[in-house]
Amino acid sequence: MPSYELAMVLRQMSRPELVSVLKRTAESILDKGCIIRNLENLGTRALPHKISEHGVVHREGSYFTITFDSAPTKISDFMEEFGRDIDIVRRRIFKIEEPEEFQCTLHEEMLPPAYRKDVQEMIDIAKRKQKPKFKYNSGLDYYPFQK
Amino acid sequence: MLRIIGTVVRSAASSTRSIVTPFSSTTLVQRNISAPVQSDEPIDIPNPYEKERRECILCKHNIVPNYKNIKLLSQFQSPYTGRIYGRHITGLCKQKQEQVEKAIIRAQNCALMPTYHKDMDFFQDPRLFDPEKPVRPHKY
């Protein structure tokens, strides 16, 4: 099962209410046969902009993330279920992926254009796209007659 | 060049031959021919003028941008319009810039970060780059 992260914003509530909402969401995840790995509280603060959800305008919210392992087919069900919950202002589910190892390419990018690989490729493409020119085969590098 | 050196050596040998006995002069000429290494011959070394390999600031400190790290991500956001600065301003490598952009959009999606301005809490943060002086000239 791949790991997912549920990032959600809960509406402004009292502490016991907040606990009950978190319990509800966690149980709905567990009921689907998923494993919860982590629950993180990112704090309560003013939203960066007002958000209108379920017919109410929210200006403050509590941020939580839940990391869980689940089957990929169940993600849409979670989105639908949490979308119906009026205490959840916003919910997003992201797949947790290991960052790929790579070498910093800044040095190559800062080279003069003629030495950059992508520029050389572009020049090659332009050369390939040029129309074939007719050759006179006269052995001269100019046209000897009046045009 | 080599030919010139050869002539110089030969003339030197002939000049010595006129002074020293013929037997010793032949040994001198032979030694000159058998010694191929000259003191002023070009030596095989790596390019001494090659510039030091540069790394972008996130690669240097081995930082992977995360959408929950708003304080870091807001440093790549314009305080006037909230737009993400381009690669020619931030001075990041291609992959890191892509990761940063993805993380910022994710954070804005989760209502963690504003989209049309920079968070007021992070206005006093140190600047990683100067938007007035881009690393490369602007595309337009």
Automatic annotation (TrEMBL), chain A:
<dbReference type="Pfam" id="PF01250">
    <property type="entry name" value="Ribosomal_S6"/>
</dbReference>
<dbReference type="InterPro" id="IPR014717">
    <property type="entry name" value="Transl_elong_EF1B/ribsomal_bS6"/>
</dbReference>
<keyword id="KW-0689">Ribosomal protein</keyword>
<dbReference type="GO" id="GO:0070181">
    <property type="term" value="F:small ribosomal subunit rRNA binding"/>
</dbReference>
<keyword id="KW-0687">Ribonucleoprotein</keyword>
<dbReference type="GO" id="GO:0006412">
    <property type="term" value="P:translation"/>
</dbReference>
<comment type="similarity">
    <text>Belongs to the bacterial ribosomal protein bS6 family.</text>
</comment>
<dbReference type="InterPro" id="IPR035980">
    <property type="entry name" value="Ribosomal_bS6_sf"/>
</dbReference>
<dbReference type="GO" id="GO:0003735">
    <property type="term" value="F:structural constituent of ribosome"/>
</dbReference>
<protein>
    <recommendedName>
        <fullName>Small ribosomal subunit protein bS6m</fullName>
    </recommendedName>
</protein>
<dbReference type="InterPro" id="IPR000529">
    <property type="entry name" value="Ribosomal_bS6"/>
</dbReference>
<dbReference type="GO" id="GO:0005763">
    <property type="term" value="C:mitochondrial small ribosomal subunit"/>
</dbReference>
TrEMBL record, chain B:
<comment type="similarity">
    <text>Belongs to the bacterial ribosomal protein bS18 family.</text>
</comment>
<protein>
    <submittedName>
        <fullName>(Mediterranean fruit fly) hypothetical protein</fullName>
    </submittedName>
</protein>
<dbReference type="InterPro" id="IPR001648">
    <property type="entry name" value="Ribosomal_bS18"/>
</dbReference>
<keyword id="KW-0687">Ribonucleoprotein</keyword>
<dbReference type="Pfam" id="PF01084">
    <property type="entry name" value="Ribosomal_S18"/>
</dbReference>
<dbReference type="InterPro" id="IPR036870">
    <property type="entry name" value="Ribosomal_bS18_sf"/>
</dbReference>
<dbReference type="GO" id="GO:0070181">
    <property type="term" value="F:small ribosomal subunit rRNA binding"/>
</dbReference>
<dbReference type="GO" id="GO:0032543">
    <property type="term" value="P:mitochondrial translation"/>
</dbReference>
<dbReference type="GO" id="GO:0003735">
    <property type="term" value="F:structural constituent of ribosome"/>
</dbReference>
<keyword id="KW-0689">Ribosomal protein</keyword>
<dbReference type="GO" id="GO:0005763">
    <property type="term" value="C:mitochondrial small ribosomal subunit"/>
</dbReference>
